[in-house]
Amino acid sequence: MTHRDPLVILLDADNTLIDSDAIKADLVTLIASRYGPALRERFAAIYEDVRAELNVVSYPVVFQRLQREAHAAEDVFATLTDYMMRYPYRRRVFAGVRPALRALAAYGRLVVVTDGDPWFQGKKITDAGIAGLVHGNVLIFTHKEDHITDICLRYPADHYAFFDDKPHLLAAFKRQLGDRVTTVWVRQGAYAAGGWGAHHPAPDHALDSVAAARDLVPSFGARPGGQALVAVTGR
Ligand SMILES: [Mg+2]
User: Fold this and answer.
1) For the chain, which residues make up each domain, given as ranges?
2) What separation in Å is there between the alpha carbon of 232 and the centre of ligand 1?
3) 121-172 per-position pLDDT tens digit
4) Assigned CATH topology for domain 5-19+93-231
5) How far is the C-alpha of 217 from the C-alpha of 233, rounded, in Å?
6) How many whole angstroms from 216 Cα to the centroid of ligand 1?
7) Phi-psi region for residue 89, left (φ > 0), alpha (ψ -120 to 50) or beta?
8) What residues pair up with 217 in beta bridges, in sequence order?
9) How far apart (Å, rounded) are the C-alpha atoms in residues 235 and 215?
10) Distance in Å, CA 74 to ligand 1 centroid
11) Residues lying with their CB under 5 A of ligand 1, a single-atom ion
12) Whether the Cβ atoms of residue 218 and residue 230 lie closer than 8 Å to each other
């Protein structure tokens, strides 16, 4: 029989637990210093093209396209892939993540749910030490919003909390799960800088940093059959 948790806390990785904008900036610095400004400009354009086409960041696809445009003698794909595979991801975990996750773990099962290329994402989450912090509960989908039912089947719960930096994902989870989910918008990174926009419904909570998640506590009985996370005020 499948175990059912009172509360499962779903955590995004990129720009929620890990400073992925900083990792991208380091990659751009490498491209500029090794291949020059022209290829750096092409990287920026291809990155946005791929993100628009796939609705997700895929470094392998970006690197393949960049290789096609590079000088034949330049081993762009291998060099950039190697860089990302050796990158010290642990240094890019946001400040306060570890105490925040320890605090949240007292209330519910922690599950990282991320999207993108599975190789890079798996490597990054493991090397950053995040997989260990959530006891290996990591799900990687190309588009997580297409797999909300799968997530709920894999981790059955009376109530879910969902932390993400992207407004459209938070709204999608709320539309599908309704009162079964508490959405927490973590306003970090490029997506959050663009504001909430016209997405509906609004998030239940908004935090300026993931570190503030340690000040969320569950409110038992707030919703039938489950518990919600609520912000603590006055601290
Ligand atoms: Mg994210």
Assistant:
1) 5-19+93-231, 21-89
2) 24
3) 999 999 999 999 999 999 999 899 999 999 999 999 999 999 999 999 999 9
4) Rossmann fold (3.40.50)
5) 11
6) 20
7) alpha
8) 230
9) 8
10) 32
11) 12, 14-15, 165
12) yes
